[in-house]
Design goal:
The protein is of the alpha+beta class and 808 residues long. It is 41% helix and 21% strand. The chain has four domains: 75 residues, Phosphorylase Kinase, domain 1 (2-Layer Sandwich); 207 residues, Transferase(Phosphotransferase), domain 1; 245 residues, no CATH class; 238 residues, Serine Threonine Protein Phosphatase 5, Tetratricopeptide repeat (Alpha Horseshoe). The strands form seven sheets. It has a seven-stranded antiparallel β-sheet with strand order 11-10-9-12-13-14-15, with no helix packed on it.
């Protein structure tokens, strides 16, 4: 006889169904959550018990876990009342009631956070309101343990409208992710609507990543601005700027309540008495809340239409409305700057469909454009066309202002591409990979009393080697005390420290006062910014020189192997593998080259063995995973290829590996996933990115948009083969032989064109001849396998099946 008697179903969600049951062993009524077959949680896991059995009045009590009807279950106390979702079906809550309930929620979440446990799926459905008004949080720990399985398949844990930006981006959720979700819940309690809920999941996720929470619902609900400020701080996109703890939110709610009471209506006489003190108190509380109007106060911008932007302060008050001549897309949170007059600085995103470049715009308080800065599209370091403005750093020195503008790029140190000087303001634009910048701080580098901007970070593409940049008001000099002889790079205002000569490993680095601590091959060494050793031994020069000679010899052999034919190259590499190597990383490089040469020589199995040997020596050799992904793709094992491509991108953060991964999604029919990823990605090489994005749109049957993206890509490089080829494919789809010919004339000799020629023949009614040409093209493309050729093969198959192309 079964232990549990099911009385009724009381709820269901993505993880399982909740029943009211009578437990015959415990002789009482309980809630039993029966997990779905797709949810693979080991309910006997000790850590799962810790997460699900938190003891707090505001957290639902878990009695036990086990197996019921061959599926895991969680037995919980039975609650009399309604979920917060059910309560909100009746509309928004009164302010005082919402605060009272929200503080209870904060207490429960704060208790869990104090024990290092984040919920990660907070939403009204997981918050229960008892009949006596007490609040209870349910489903603690479930999201974390589902995440262990789902992340392997690239899924996202949580309800879309309440996910934090970092969770959407595939990062680990933490306590600050809960705070973002709490901000969404509090917003909905006060307004009756979710801040980011849209008509579909992609639109909802896009809103969370790119759009500010709408201010109109808060205004309609007459929510005081001090509470609006608290909500907005919870909902900041960057988790580092949100509240760090629930206690911080509670304290600000208390401060806000004090401010609101001072603002209540009173008699004229009493109003005069408290006018000065209340204004002073209000200012003080705003400072305590971190919401004051000091210089460089962050603001938010809302795009109202193509040519209109509203600018709000953090309390939700509109500062100004800006009318723009161009259709600019604001992406950088603007800064309010200026000594006497308010100015608003906005960085913008590149708009590929209007070919509108990213730039920096300065408006006055009335919304009038004072100056704008559009970086030149072409310079010796490459094209800046299409790159987004990703960060604006304001500096001040002796009445002059400087803005350091970071533009999306993958360079490992910042190239200064241009400088613009409107009045007493200097704007310097850099191609910069800001994704790895860990710290921005001001340090007096020279000891001259002037603090310089120092950026410290880690460059993924250089094997996680620490890099430091310093920029000052007088055009800084750069040096590297750890190389043999200092490197001066005065032109770019750059300091960088890199791997020790011949050490074969990255080193640790930290900045303290005006000194640098470096972990060298002899231990910890302390240096000043001029490269002088203040403490420690530095590095062993004799070892370094011997190591360098060995490396030079090996690199010369590597060049020889790469520059000759495959067979001779294989012989050189195989004989070299018997020599002494300075470290396993160098040896791994030779195994990688051996695999590459064997693959080029047609020995696929030998190539796979060499690549795997390279990974045994260096498990973080991202390029090897890319090559293996290509081989598995060639074999038709797209799932395995996707796993390897994802591993490569996780290690390298390289744009090429990212594009490679999206194309494998296309081969598996996952167009929506590829499109969403491409829309979110911070493009470094815009022309190539636009071409890949065009291919993604083509496979999503958005042919007109695809063609416009190929056209945009060709503006930077008119002879760029990838967009030329796919634009020609589009021409053949619509039977435009003239357009196809004009593009095919620019193809490199030997380009396979049968897939386009065959489709043109079919469009002209020559079906038998066209199918024959397509079959020949398919064989040729298979012999010269690449992921792009495989995509072309998929297109050929659709025509051979009698369809009118991929979108029939």
């Amino acid at each position: 006889m079964e232990r549990f008697e099911i009385i009724e179903e009381i709820g269901r969600g993505s993880t399982g169904i909740v029943y009211k049951v009578y437990d015959k062993e415990l002789n009482g009524y309980y809630a039993l959550k029966h997990l779905r077959p797709t949810v693979t949680i080991d309910v006997t896991d000790r850590e799962f018990h810790i997460y699900t059995r938190l003891k707090h009045p505001g957290i639902v009590e878990v009695i036990e876990t086990g197996i019921f009807r061959e599926q895991p279950y969680i037995l919980m106390e039975y609650l009399e009342g309604r979920t917060l979702r059910d309560v909100l079906q009746d509309g928004a809550l009164p302010l005082d009631k919402a605060i009272e309930m929200f503080v209870q929620i904060l207490d429960a979440i704060s208790f869990a956070h104090s024990r290092g446990i984040a919920h990660r799926d907070l939403k009204p459905e997981n918050i229960f309101v008892l009949k006596d008004g007490r609040m209870k949080i349910t489903d603690f720990g479930i999201a974390r343990f589902i995440d262990r399985t789902v992340t392997e398949t690239g899924g996202i844990i949580g309800t879309p409208a309440y996910l934090s930006p970092e969770q959407i981006n595939g990062e680990q959720g933490d306590e600050r992710s809960d705070i973002f979700s709490l901000g969404c819940v509090f917003y909905e309690m006060l307004t009756g609507s979710s801040p980011f809920q849209r008509n579909n999941v992609p639109s909802t996720l896009f809103a969370i990543l790119n759009e500010p929470p709408p201010s109109e619902p808060l205004k309609r609900a007459r929510i005081p601005r001090v509470y609006t400020g608290i909500i907005l701080k919870c909902l900041l996109k960057d988790r580092n700027y949100r509240y760090a703890t629930c206690e911080g939110i509670k304290q600000d709610l208390l401060n806000a309540e004090n401010i609101r009471r001072i603002s209540l209506p009173m008699s004229r006489k009493r109003r005069q008495v408290v006018r000065v003190s209340s204004a002073l108190f209000l200012s003080l509380m705003l400072v305590l809340l971190g919401l004051g109007f000091a210089s460089n106060t962050p603001v938010r911008v809302e795009k109202i239409s193509d040519h209109e932007i509203s600018v709000y302060n953090i309390l939700g008050r509109r500062l100004t409305k800006i009318h723009t001549q161009n259709n600019i897309i604001p992406v950088v949170l603007a800064d309010v700057t200026g000594d006497r007059k308010r100015e608003i600085i906005i960085g913008t995103r590149y708009d590929p469909f209007n070919d509108a470049p990213g730039g920096v715009y300065c408006f006055n308080a009335k919304g009038k454009l004072i100056w704008k800065f559009i970086p030149p599209q072409d310079n010796i370091y490459g094209s800046s066309r299409g790159r987004d403005i990703i960060h604006i750093l304001p500096l001040k020195s002796k009445g002059n202002r400087k803005f350091i503008v970071e533009m999306s790029a993958r360079y490992w140190f910042p190239y200064l591409i241009t400088e613009y000087t409107p009045g007493n303001t200097t704007v310097e634009a850099y191609f910069w990979n800001a994704g790895w910048v860990l710290e921005r701080r001001f340090v007096d580098v020279d000891g001259d009393g002037v603090k310089d901007l120092v950026l410290a970070g880690v460059n993924n593409q250089l094997g996680f080697k620490p890099v430091v940049f310093a920029l000052s008001g007088k055009g800084f000099r750069g040096q590297s005390p750890l190389w043999a002889g200092r490197t001066q790079i005065e032109e770019y205002g750059l300091i960088f420290y890199t791997v020790l000569p011949g050490s074969g490993k990255p080193f640790g680095l930290s900045i303290k006062d005006r000194t640098i601590e470096v972990e060298t091959n002899t231990g910890l060494t302390r240096l000043d910014f001029k490269g002088n050793i203040l403490g420690g031994k530095g590095f062993d020069a004799s070892y370094a020189l011997r190591n360098l000679d060995m490396r030079k010899h090996l690199w010369n052999l590597l060049k020889q192997a790469f520059s000759t034919d495959s067979e001779n190259g294989i012989k050189i590499v195989q004989s070299t593998l018997n020599e002494e190597f300075p470290d396993r990383y160098m040896k791994s490089t030779f195994y990688y080259l051996l695999g590459f040469l064997k693959e080029r020589n047609g020995d696929i199995q030998g190539a796979v063995e060499a690549y795997n040997r390279a990974l045994e020596l260096d498990a973080r050799f991202g390029k090897v995973y890319s090559e293996l992904a290509r081989i598995y793709g060639m074999k038709g094992d797209y799932k395995r290829a996707e796993e390897l491509a994802k591993k490569a991108y996780t290690i390298t953060s390289d744009q090429w590996d990212f594009y490679f991964l999206q194309l494998f999604y296309l081969l598996q029919g996952r167009w929506i996933e590829a499109k969403e990823n491409m829309d979110k990605f911070n493009y470094a090489n815009t022309d190539f990115a636009m071409a890949v994005r065009g291919i993604v749109e083509y496979f999503g049957c958005n042919v007109e948009r695809a063609e416009s993206l190929f056209t945009v890509s060709l503006k930077g490089y008119p002879d760029f083969f990838l967009p030329l080829l796919w634009k020609a494919i589009v021409c053949s789809d619509r039977g435009d032989r003239t357009g196809y010919k004009s593009l095919a004339e620019k193809f490199p000799s030997g380009t396979i064109t049968g897939d386009m020629e065959g489709v043109l023949l079919i469009r002209e009614g020559k079906y038998k001849q066209g199918n024959k040409v397509l079959l020949g093209a398919m064989d040729s493309l298979r012999k010269e396998w690449s992921i792009y050729n495989q995509l072309r093969i998929e297109r050929i198959k659709s025509y051979l099946e009698g369809k009118n192309g991929l979108c029939d």
